[in-house]
Design a protein that fits this description.
This protein is α/β, with parallel strands linked by helices. It has seven helices and nine strands. It has two domains: 102 residues, Formyl transferase, N-terminal domain (Rossmann fold, 3-Layer(aba) Sandwich); 110 residues, Formyl transferase, N-terminal domain (Rossmann fold). It binds glycinamide ribonucleotide (GAR).
Length: 216
């Protein structure tokens, strides 16, 4: 079994989607080892407790980034985590963290990167006048919303969209994309060429068709 460590700060809908997809057998060989929140009252943390998962709060207040990250890394190691998934974790992570889990930290972002990194990505897309947005799951590197892209799903921006409506529609796709990316990475069947994530032994067209039939 590959053990996932989920880091979150809030609602936790991406965490719940991952947990549901594991339960439904859509991410074979994966289990959630621990859920860690930097916010004590994060609803996602309560959802983890209700599911009987190991759930920890590691508050950042009063700690330097390096100290906080060291505590998070220690907790992930204690639970023998293989892959770290940032799921609405609203903190930058330090090089020390990335060195502890090289190419083993994923993040989801609600835009088609490299467009609209940072906060309020959906509002940025609307204000820019983008007609298509979406979500991106990527490896985390030392720069904000920047690492190698594993998968993206696009969402049209509709004329009557406000930030909330667009965010809701993107979120539906996030819930599919994150589990898909975790499954792909856990398969180990990929290589990274420069910035490109390439699934091994499967042509790009075949890959797209396989994913389409699996995830809809
Ligand atoms: C999601 O939309 C996620 O993409 C975004 O926060 C939300 C968390 O929702 N993350 C970022 O903006 C990171 N830059 P959730 O707590 O319901 O999963």
């Amino acid at each position: 079994m590959k053990r996932l460590g989920i880091l979150l700060s809030g609602r936790g809908s991406n965490f719940i989607a991952i947990a549901d997809n594991i339960a439904a057998g859509k991410i074979p060989g994966a289990e959630i080892a621990v859920v860690i929140s930097n916010k004590p009252y994060a609803p996602g943390l309560q959802a983890a407790e209700q599911r009987g998962l190991n759930a920890h709060v590691i508050q950042s207040k009063g700690l330097s980034r390096a100290e906080h990250d060291a505590a998070v890394v220690a907790c992930l190691r204690e639970h023998k985590v293989d892959l770290v998934c940032l799921a609405g974790y609203m903190r930058l992570i330090s090089p020390v963290f990335l060195e502890a889990f090289p190419n083993k930290v994923l993040n989801i972002h609600p835009s088609l990167l490299p467009a609209f990194p940072g906060l309020d990505a959906q509002r940025q897309a609307l204000e820019y006048g983008a007609q298509v947005s979406g979500c991106t799951v990527h490896f985390v590197d030392e720069n904000l919303d920047h690492g190698v892209i594993i998968t993206q799903r696009s969402v049209p921006v509709l004329p009557d969209d406000d930030e909330h409506a667009l965010a809701e529609r993107i979120l539906e796709q996030e819930h599919i994309a994150y589990s898909e990316a975790i499954r792909l990475v856990l398969s180990g069947d990929y290589e990274i060429c420069g910035r490109r994530y390439l699934q091994k032994g499967i042509s790009p067209r075949r890959h797209r068709d396989t994913e389409k039939s699996r995830w809809g």
